[in-house]
Amino acid sequence: MAGFNQLFVPGPTNVPESVRQAMNMPMEDMRAPDYPTFTRGLFTDLMKVFRNETGRAFIFPSSGTGAWESAITNTLSPGDRVLMSRFGQFSHLWVDMAERFGLDVDVVDVEWGTGVPVEIYAERLAADKEHRIKAVFVTHNETATGVTSDVGAVRAALNAAKHPALLFVDGVSSVGSIDFRQEEWGVDCAVSGSQKGFMLPPGLGFLSVSQKALNAAKTAKFSRCYFSFEDQIRANDTGYFPYTPAVQLLRGLRAALDLIQEEGLDNIFERHHRLATGVRKAVDAWGLRVCAKEAKWNSDTVSAIVVPEGIDSADIVRRAYNGYQTSLGVGLNKVAGKVFRIGHLGWVNEVMMCGAISAAEMSLRDCGVKVQPGSGVGAALEHYRLSAQPAVAKAA
Amino acid sequence: MAGFNQLFVPGPTNVPESVRQAMNMPMEDMRAPDYPTFTRGLFTDLMKVFRNETGRAFIFPSSGTGAWESAITNTLSPGDRVLMSRFGQFSHLWVDMAERFGLDVDVVDVEWGTGVPVEIYAERLAADKEHRIKAVFVTHNETATGVTSDVGAVRAALNAAKHPALLFVDGVSSVGSIDFRQEEWGVDCAVSGSQKGFMLPPGLGFLSVSQKALNAAKTAKFSRCYFSFEDQIRANDTGYFPYTPAVQLLRGLRAALDLIQEEGLDNIFERHHRLATGVRKAVDAWGLRVCAKEAKWNSDTVSAIVVPEGIDSADIVRRAYNGYQTSLGVGLNKVAGKVFRIGHLGWVNEVMMCGAISAAEMSLRDCGVKVQPGSGVGAALEHYRLSAQPAVAKAA
Amino acid sequence: MAGFNQLFVPGPTNVPESVRQAMNMPMEDMRAPDYPTFTRGLFTDLMKVFRNETGRAFIFPSSGTGAWESAITNTLSPGDRVLMSRFGQFSHLWVDMAERFGLDVDVVDVEWGTGVPVEIYAERLAADKEHRIKAVFVTHNETATGVTSDVGAVRAALNAAKHPALLFVDGVSSVGSIDFRQEEWGVDCAVSGSQKGFMLPPGLGFLSVSQKALNAAKTAKFSRCYFSFEDQIRANDTGYFPYTPAVQLLRGLRAALDLIQEEGLDNIFERHHRLATGVRKAVDAWGLRVCAKEAKWNSDTVSAIVVPEGIDSADIVRRAYNGYQTSLGVGLNKVAGKVFRIGHLGWVNEVMMCGAISAAEMSLRDCGVKVQPGSGVGAALEHYRLSAQPAVAKAA
Amino acid sequence: MAGFNQLFVPGPTNVPESVRQAMNMPMEDMRAPDYPTFTRGLFTDLMKVFRNETGRAFIFPSSGTGAWESAITNTLSPGDRVLMSRFGQFSHLWVDMAERFGLDVDVVDVEWGTGVPVEIYAERLAADKEHRIKAVFVTHNETATGVTSDVGAVRAALNAAKHPALLFVDGVSSVGSIDFRQEEWGVDCAVSGSQKGFMLPPGLGFLSVSQKALNAAKTAKFSRCYFSFEDQIRANDTGYFPYTPAVQLLRGLRAALDLIQEEGLDNIFERHHRLATGVRKAVDAWGLRVCAKEAKWNSDTVSAIVVPEGIDSADIVRRAYNGYQTSLGVGLNKVAGKVFRIGHLGWVNEVMMCGAISAAEMSLRDCGVKVQPGSGVGAALEHYRLSAQPAVAKAA
Lengths: 396, 396, 396, 396
What we know:
The structure is a homotetramer.
Chain A: E1 6-7, H1 17-23, H2 35-50, E2 56-61, H3 64-75, E3 81-86, H4 89-100, E4 104-109, H5 118-127, E5 133-139, E6 141-142, E7 147-148, H6 151-160, E8 166-170, H7 182-185, E9 189-193, E10 204-209, H8 211-216, H9 229-236, H10 247-263, H11 265-286, E11 289-290, E12 302-306, H12 313-324, E13 326-327, E14 339-343, H13 350-366, H14 375-386
Parallel strand pairs in A: 1-13, 3-4, 3-5, 5-8, 8-9
Antiparallel strand pairs in A: 2-10, 6-7, 9-10, 11-12, 12-14
């Protein structure tokens, strides 16, 4: 088929040209004398994206799942009690991992379309006078349902209860795209991956940790090697890695971090909010709704759109792919068949989003959903132009 | 700015990924023993795109302008009378070149928005009993106004008059995108360039010629060296070039020709017609009109859209570029300020066109043109989905 | 500095142009409907490189170290007794991992420069009537010393003892470069990585396993998630992955597997032997020797060259890098300062090796080692030309 | 075949990685509002490479041959008398072009292996009291024979004769590689191309001109359009081009000019001299000689090496290509079969040259030339290391 494929899954996201150019490289020796000069800047600038000021960051050749595993196995011990919540495929998988590693998981199940139940967390923490809970887990952005949770509120609950538990955050589809403040929120283990807000191909797992997490690693009893903090620290401190790093992706990471610094984190967050708002206006114009139950849960990185009864959302995704060369996200697990997803994170802009909405409109109509042609994209583009900087608003 | 730039000028056009990959190469020796194996396939397959069966094709490191010059200087002599018509910036420039080379140019000026005046050509040819006219020039697709002329009708006029003049066609923005039949239409010199339907970066000029043109070259008296047929033929016949060819673009050309063969010329023409129709439906929905005066002149590779009185079309193009990272075509020469252009040729598809139309809608409204948000893109996308293969038409 | 950097470390190795082109790609959705068509071919062809006919292969976003960990955690249980040997940095690190995971490691330490002590292994296996040894580990090619061990002989020892232990092989710097026969040798877990014989950037860990290993996974008691066989199998069987795979490297892997199939494994092994022999002839001509104690240990993928007393091999490596833009391998651990290494695996040919040897000669002389200028490269190139196919041997 | 191809023809030359990365780009609009910001820097920095301070430079989508044609057709008129000399294939072709354009060419034929006969030029100029000679042509570096001529001496001859003729220099294989001083030497038209010292793929012709040449263009009577100064000036002055420029190569040119500025022209000249000297020492060690008759003619960008009687140099080139994936230059025209050429210009360094010499040694021996294996590369590498910066000279 002709023309460019259009990628609007919530990761992998589109790779900027400068990142792509940087990865178009011959191989290099990761033990070269001048390699540390390169790697040190990476770690420093990576921490800035997490707004981690006093801890350190690890870069694993892995997916974000590997970084989850690193967080658990380096700071906890078998049988440790942890507080988690489940409201989507990714929070579900994290619970599953914790259970498989033998943690004593206190899972709070809440409705899909909502997020971390801060009040319940607050109660449990307040009740846990003996501090048996060793860690509290927050899926910052549940990619399956397009729900963003309030990390700061969980920190407040911990503080209110004067609870010493570690705070773990899955920021795979949030860090670098929406507001995340590791230092301010006292996040001990913040997990992310290369293929979302970092605008890289998948293949790097990031784990940004606090000094408290580093201290916890000294007594944590899980076996670990590949994902060991200690090995990384020993090598990273010399500018190298304990085993061969993914050198091509590291060169891409450099270019991506440069782009992030150039645009500025706050501008990036604002751009994501603006683009996401346009998508939500399109959904409204279609007469449909997003999976997030209330506006406060709305994610600025991905929207899960609920299809009408009797329609299989998988058909819409398949139609967009086969008919219009456009990748949308399928519904996963409990919302399989019920939602399709539009990723609006990373290297995206207004016109790209109008393309995504257009593809969705064609596919919805092809599958029998009677949205008005042009209604969604019209609502979105009018929002985009009215909110553009510098503002221009001639037509009425 | 974030996200991909969107390119909808009528050339350079978007480069397919496989072409881009093919050009991501180390340098090579254009005198290598096995280079002819490579070049021979290029010439053969290039001729197929022109539907030239009995002549030959030349590949110059140049723009299409160079191929124009090659056509003139190799087949004509100073003072030769030629019949040309002018109805846009590119037909104008071709006339200018002919005059500067000292040809005796009979220019027929017709209204911009119309094309080659076949009836007038027929009269002049019928009247030219002494066959003083040595060549008849046709701008197949006037890129400045979005007008396609009828090459076959000019051939018919030549035949009706039993006139031996050479037939020159500027196919820069037509060949490989819309129906072109060199053999059937008896085109003697067909000019094109790499950066339009061939989906390559600019840098190659193509000239596809008939045996009649090759014969004419034997007596043509212009001085020529860089663009000489004779030098090319001598070298090309051995699989090489008379001077260093643009080897990187040649590798890209191989990939582009493969894509063209894979999709099939007739399918490519159909795709261009379908995408162009969608754009024209958008223009209708906006309440605007294209520059082409009648439907028969409509170009399937570029639409020039007339803006309302009091609006400067250059503002719209500038707004799209600065505000929405989208390159549209400006109005040139007589239609400067009056039209903006959307290129819909080469490596394009439905969603890309919806993006282009969305960018145009935002820019039009920003500049005070009261098009209904979503009206154009809605009209286009509904056309695209209803004409998609295989057809799917559920929503009413 | 000008000109291309020269890479002759034993991994990462040079990436072929077609692999580089394949990785120059926009991102794609790893959940696309047609993705399984792509992934299935990868698994099938990857197994062929291991000559694994009846098991299956796993592809992890990781380094080879991750694949080591996967082998251990999926097929063994804490406290299991394993038989290992140590004779270089990489066999050392594997022992270290096994110990950290709580295996009961019977380590046989042998002189660096020799390899797996098959006779001792045979004795231990014969003595282990109760089959307490659950797995036997073989570092096929010790990258630190340039020593290749005899995997087939270890299989013979297992068979002679009628011992049911699993056979683990570290083939990171052997598979795809030198003779490896998983099926014939009954290797249960064969580990490799993308950045050596597979000619890719680092970032993929490969684990090719037998049915026996898959069965062992059913009762193995280590916690595991990221590197779990079970999760991979469930997803891979549908053509997908349990978490986001490194899609860019997977496209590169496709291109690399195509190159491997095109050249043919046996031809690849023969090429590596020929190139390695040339390097060893150069070492002889210099009056130096390789670290491998006997010819039978010589590795065809990397040569560790012993420098004269009083010379620090790290100076030579540094000089080659800073003075001649050439990356050679440093000595690691016990042979730090004593050897430097030339990698001759992957996408290499005669002229590249002559360049490597030239760089080594300049650096050796700069550091005070009195090798005769041109002696090594002369010996190597004469070997290369005399062993070239088709043979040409005019000059005497 | 495996491993990288090795390119040592005297153009196209090896493309640096940063240039390759810069050309790995999506297409762009050459009429974009901010395009002039980009192009202006190109012209400014291009002139610096020619050391042209007061004239201007033109960039054509063409080969260097096109720039030759531009120089002639814009500054001369049919029938003008010009003084040229012929001593190789490229000076021959330039004479041929001048004759075909109807210039009255006074050709001085001198032995191949020598260069511009300054004394004869001086005589002719002194004798031409009526100033009938309108231009004097100098092939600065004759690529076919590896001969560099003395441009400054020709300027001195012109000055001594107080002769107003224009000075034309073919600097295709010299500018950016060896000392060239347009302003100081009063060169009026200096021709070059992208694929030599500029380290780009072929496809751009450069013409750097003096104010005197620009004045001459006002009265020059050749027809011209594609290569017209006037059209270029009018467009370039606005930051654009008169027809579609080769935008991808222009982005590459930016990266190449950055590299040139970073290394510094004088350092580049010194590097070329050092690398060329090594090649000549190799030729001496082989017992062969270069085509240049005296040391003063030696070119620092290409060496043409004379093979012994009874040997066909084309066999050596073919053997290097087919047997060792190495491209050497063939002998052209009068020296066909008699010389082979090693290009040592552009993005080259010591180890690359050792590879080239190694390939030549293998090929020479394969073809029956009894050079001592390692003799040439040994002589070269010893020169390289002794002349390296900073100098290191331990081994005796």
